[in-house]
Amino acid sequence: MPKEIHVYEVLRRPIVTEKSTLLAGHRQYVFEVAVGANKPQIKAAVEKAFNVTVETVNTTMAHGRRRKNKFGKSAGEPPVYKKAMVKVAPGQTIEFFEGV
Amino acid sequence: MAITKERLPRARVSLEIEVDQERVEKHMDRAVARLSKQVRVPGFRPGKVPRRNLERHVGTAALLQEALEELVPEVYQEALLSEEIDAIDQPEFSLKSTEPLVVTAIVPVRPDVDLKDYKSLRAPKPEVNITEEQVSDALTSIRRRHAVLEPVDRVVAWNDTVRADVTVSVDGQAEPHVEEDAEFPVREGSVVSLPGFVEKLIGLERGVAHHIEFDLPEDFGAEELAGKTAKYDITIHEVKQEVLPEVDDEFVVSLDEEGVSTVAEMDARIRSDLQSQAERMLIGDYQDEIVDLLVATASLDYPEVLVDREIDRIIDRESNHASHTPEGLNNWLNAVGKTLEGLREELKERADLTVRRALVIGQLIEDEAIEVTDEMIDAEIDSLAGQMGGAGASNPDSVAAIRGLFDTPDGRASIKNQLITKTALERLVEICSQPESEGDAAPRASRRRRGAAASSDEATDDSVDESAATTEDGAETTTETTEA
Q1: pTM strictly above 0.90
Q2: Measured between CB atoms, which of A15, A17, A99 is closest to B44?
């Protein structure tokens, strides 16, 4: 039973990288989402936020690689977060205005 | 591309260029390609940032700026070509609007010089009058060069040459200066040994030891001697009288001057030599005077940048090219104790005058269609090589070597410039030295003169084969008769 997450707390931010820009050409948009969010929740959140129809949602957990400093000790852990790749219905697009 | 051209004062042109949107877009894309290589946007490798992301990252304004850097010079060059503008310096750009893109460029162009009615300019040429005295002085000095010294038995008089043992000592000098068998001329106004000495010799007898004392002037050049008393012990061995050759045809022939064989011819030659010598000395001043006259009558419209460049040139020359490097310039400025701004301000007037003079002469060259042929340059180079060769002039190799120094493309160009300027000045002298005009007599004469120069057979139909010079003389005579 997944934890209740409010629809406005599912989507953290859009991920804007070369790879995500490439995916956008294939109607797929990438977001960082709450770690606890599941696919139906993400689908609902995206549909509500961007007023689109979501076809599929793929998710993955991003674990940053632990980096060692010059003394061989860890310089801290990169954050762990969840990514969601959302495919929208043909003809529909999502405009990101954030990230400036 | 729509261009609006407007002429501004001080020889500047304002160009308002409206650039098509399509073209702006093209350049925006190129700007993105350039910028994306320089700017790091997180999530993208350099050079891989899409335009949309880049625009959001650096801002549209910055992107436009980058695009303009390439676009503006490009459209500016095109505008110069299509409007046929002869720019002489970098333009000043300003952005009038972005939608649509309108760029204003203010650019200094070639100066506009109008010499007005320069053909009616008149300035009295300085008269050179050779007096009888000058001629006879010149003749005397020639005679002196060929004088014979004849020993005589009498006391010393002016213009004699004396052979004597002389011992000089000046107060405070330990060692007296001794000269034995010294031969020197006794001439009024000339200085032998110390000033005042020659005068004391007049009337001295031969073969007797004399003692002379006199005070040196207070303002004597050598400070340690000034105002001291000079003591001379002198024994004169020989007094020689100067016998000047008689001025007769025989003497004249012996001088071996070409084309001079009688006394009358000799006189005429001396007079004409003196005349041309004096004229040469005066012509420079006269040329300056009439060029300034021309500057004063002409209307000049020239950009400030010409004056600035002239100032640069003056500074460069005066600082011995130290101004080529910033440190050198600073050192030099410190040495002369001036600031760059102050110095530039000081030089401004002078540079301005130089520019004005150069401009009117340049325009004169154009108006008078003065040209220099290759043959004239060759002749000039030959004469230069001849002068430089000096003693070695007889040696064809050395003349050829010196000729080689001048006969380079750069050398020829510079000689050509000099010749053109010289010819222009001569033409100006010719124009200005015509007799003062009453009414419109002179302009008519000058028009006639121009016609004469253009086609000799039309001006003087009775003598078709006459040379240009003679034709011009003919025109000159006409001028005089018109006035009379």
Answers
A1: no
A2: A17
